[in-house]
Design a protein that fits this description.
Number of domains: 1
Radius of gyration: 17 Å
Strand content: 5-15%
Largest sheet: 4 strands, antiparallel
CATH superfamily: NADH Oxidase
Order of helices and strands: HHEHHHEHEHE
CATH class: Alpha Beta
Helix content: 40-55%
Oligomer: single chain
Distance between the termini: 35 Å
Length: 194
C-alpha cells in the first residue's frame, strides 16, 4: 500500500474517463470513506446520491448548464468571477458535450441534510472519498457547478431532496483515461511561530 503522503501528493482531479463501468462494491467503498469522515459534534450531516444511469447523468448535466447560464447573467457572477472567467463558463454551458460531469460513468452528489452542518464537514468527507478513489485506481473530480442543482425541480425529484436539503457538491468517478499532469504547489505558505 502506498504511504498516505504519496497518495495525497499523487492524487489529481480527473476530467477524462473510460467508458468502463465501476463495480458497485467499489463505489460503495469510496462512499464509505466519506461516511467515516469526522464531522463537527459527530453530526454526520450528509447523504450521498449515486447516479450511474446514463440518461439521468445527461439530464443532470443539462440542468446544471441551464442553472449556470442563468447565474452568468447576474451582476453577482460578474463581481465574483470577472468578465474573462464568465466567457469561459459561458462556453462550457453552451457546449454540446458534457462539460459538467465529463461523461464520467458515475456521478455522486453530496447532500446537506441538516442546516447545522459545517462546510468543513463536507470537505472532510469529500477528501476521504477522493483519496479512497485514487488509492483504488479510480479517478475523481469535485464539481462545484453541481451546487445549483438544488434549484432544479428535476434534480430535486431525482435526489428525493427534502425542503431543507441541498446539493453541496457533485463528484465525478470512473477509471481515468490517463493521469493529468502534476501542478506545482505554493510552498511559501507556512509561517512558524516558535
Amino acid at each position: 500500500m502506498m504511504p498516505i503522503e504519496e497518495l495525497i501528493a499523487s492524487r489529481r482531479s480527473v476530467r477524462d474517463y473510460q467508458t468502463q463501468s465501476v463495480p458497485k462494491a467499489l463505489i460503495q467503498k469510496v462512499i464509505d470513506a466519506g461516511i467515516w469522515a469526522p464531522s463537527s459534534m459527530n453530526r454526520q450531516p450528509w447523504r450521498f446520491v449515486v447516479v450511474t444511469q446514463e440518461e439521468a447523468r445527461k439530464t443532470l448535466s443539462e440542468e446544471a448548464k441551464q442553472s449556470l447560464l442563468a447565474f452568468l447573467n447576474t451582476h453577482a457572477a460578474l463581481e465574483q468571477y470577472g468578465k474573462d472567467a464568465l466567457e469561459r463558463f459561458k462556453k462550457r454551458a453552451e457546449s454540446e458535450e458534457d462539460t459538467i460531469f465529463y461523461d464520467a460513468p458515475v456521478v455522486i452528489m453530496v447532500i446537506q441534510t441538516k442546516d447545522v452542518g459545517n462546510q468543513f464537514d463536507y470537505g472532510l468527507a469529500v477528501e476521504n472519498m477522493l483519496l479512497c478513489a485514487h488509492g483504488n485506481g479510480l479517478g475523481m473530480c469535485p464539481i462545484g457547478l453541481a451546487t445549483p442543482l438544488s434549484q432544479s425541480e428535476a434534480a430535486r425529484e431525482m435526489f428525493h431532496l427534502q425542503p431543507e436539503e441541498k446539493v453541496i457538491i457533485g463528484l465525478c468517478l470512473g477509471y481515468p483515461n490517463d493521469a493529468p499532469e502534476k501542478t506545482e504547489r505554493h510552498t511559501d505558505v507556512v509561517e512558524w511561530v516558535e
